[in-house]
Write a structure and sequence with these properties.
Mean pLDDT: 93
Helix content: 25-40%
Largest sheet: 9 strands, mixed
Shape: globular
Order of helices and strands: EHEEEHHEHEHEEEEHEHHEHEHEEHHH
Number of helices: 13
Number of strands: 15
Low-confidence stretches: none
Strand order of the largest sheet: 4-3-2-1-5-6-7-9-8
Distance between the termini: 15 Å
């Protein structure tokens, strides 16, 4: 099948979203599909452009071709939000059979018209919504971003009517009145080095990897670490040293008190644990693997309830499992809720009980290889082919 994979932004080497998209494209390739990856980015000449890379089973790092040049400045950004004609003409010229678009909360009359034209041309279209519901994630965002959400709210049901289905990582059977295809976030096992367990007799290092937002709830872990060390002092220092490594960009609103949660800085100062919480900024490749190499337990999302989400299949949980490292989270995730290497935290505002993590890690007997084996069925090759199969069944 010829598939156009459509995103509305460019790529970053350190972005987990960018890596996920690349792995999804790879998964489709592995199943023999020809994937035309369409994205919006700045060219070498400084112009903002719509670009397409053609990925086949034999292609390696294909060069992008420009299908539309928007120029420079603010008008370039505006034009790319209302002009989708070049993508439509490309789809028709290249005999594209399916368009797989990643939601960017950008429904508007022009985008809806584009998908309507695809439908009339007999080209099947899907939209992946990475997190749902997503409205509450915009709390605290800029006025411009909240205006964009308002426009999306006005037109997203109309957009959904132009689609064959919406791809979701939740258990929702309908979103915006459209049927869903329910899959799991996938993993690319080839890209994930297998974790090697380290000696935790004297100290335990925890790692959390994210572009940190309030729904990650790392403040709960920091507060729990503070309470852990407060009890340590009462007991005369007989407990194990525990450290928390935060890898990723931390927004200013998360570092200091805001409307959603206590700030990291205030909590760290309150408990005097400045040397127990280590910030690494964004890391990838060998630098990221080095932090994992000294850690023996990972931290997933601990506050999805703050954004109104109870059921979600996050990418990070799957990445931790594919590395073979145990982890904690608070949402419902049917792929992991009953796995013996997962520790569930309550979905509330209480500090995380760090002594519980210590005890859990000490008694866990599963090897990293055994943990990894539990997610082999969650490869992107399997998950993306499920999407294609669902669409094929709808056509028959």
């Amino acid at each position: 099948m010829k598939i156009l994979f459509l995103i509305y932004h460019g790529f970053s080497e350190v972005s987990g979203i960018s890596k996920k998209i690349r792995y999804q494209v790879k998964g489709l390739q592995q199943n023999g599909h020809e994937v035309h990856l369409c994205y919006y980015d700045q060219g070498d000449n400084g112009h903002w452009q719509r670009l397409v890379e053609v990925h086949t089973s034999s292609s390696i790092h294909p060069s992008p071709s420009v299908i539309e040049d928007f120029g420079t400045g603010k008008m370039a950004g505006l034009r790319q939000r209302i002009n989708y004609g070049a993508i439509y003409r490309y789809c028709v010229a290249k005999d594209i059979q399916m368009v797989y678009a990643r939601c960017f909360q950008n429904a508007n009359p022009w985008l809806n018209r584009f998908f309507g034209k695809l439908k009339k041309a007999g080209i099947k279209a899907l939209m992946e919504i990475p997190t749902y519901p997503y409205d509450q994630e915009f709390e605290g965002f800029s006025r411009t971003e909240r205006l964009q959400l308002r426009i999306d709210q006005m037109f997203r049901k109309g957009l959904a009517r132009q689609l064959e289905a919406i791809v979701t990582f939740t258990n929702q059977e309908q979103i915006f009145g459209q049927r869903t295809i329910r899959i799991s976030n996938g993993v690319d096992l080839d890209s994930m080095p297998l974790h090697q367990r380290v000696d935790t007799a004297k100290e335990l290092h925890l790692i959390g990897v994210a572009e940190v937002h309030y729904w990650h709830g790392y403040d709960r872990l920091i507060a729990g670490l503070g309470e852990y060390y407060k009890k340590w002092k009462v007991d005369g220092g007989k407990w194990k040293e525990v450290y928390f490594h935060i890898v990723g960009g931390v927004w200013k609103s998360e570092m200091y008190d805001d409307e959603h949660a206590p700030g990291f800085s205030e909590l760290i100062k309150k408990y005097g644990i400045e040397d127990k919480v280590i910030f690494h900024d964004q890391l990838f490749g060998d630098a990221l693997n080095a932090v994992f190499a000294q850690s023996n337990f990972a931290v997933g999302s601990l506050a999805r309830h703050r954004s109104g989400i109870s059921d979600i299949k996050t990418l990070k949980n799957r990445e931790y499992a594919s590395r073979g490292i145990p982890f904690i989270y608070s949402e419902n995730d049917s792929d992991f809720d009953h796995q013996p290497y997962v520790l569930k935290a309550p979905a509330d505002e209480s500090p995380i009980d760090v002594s519980r993590i210590v005890a859990f890690e000490e008694r866990l007997s599963m090897t990293p290889q055994e943990i990894r084996q539990t997610v082999e069925h969650l490869s992107w090759k399997v998950q993306m082919q499920h999407v294609v199969d669902e669409i094929s069944n709808l056509q028959s």
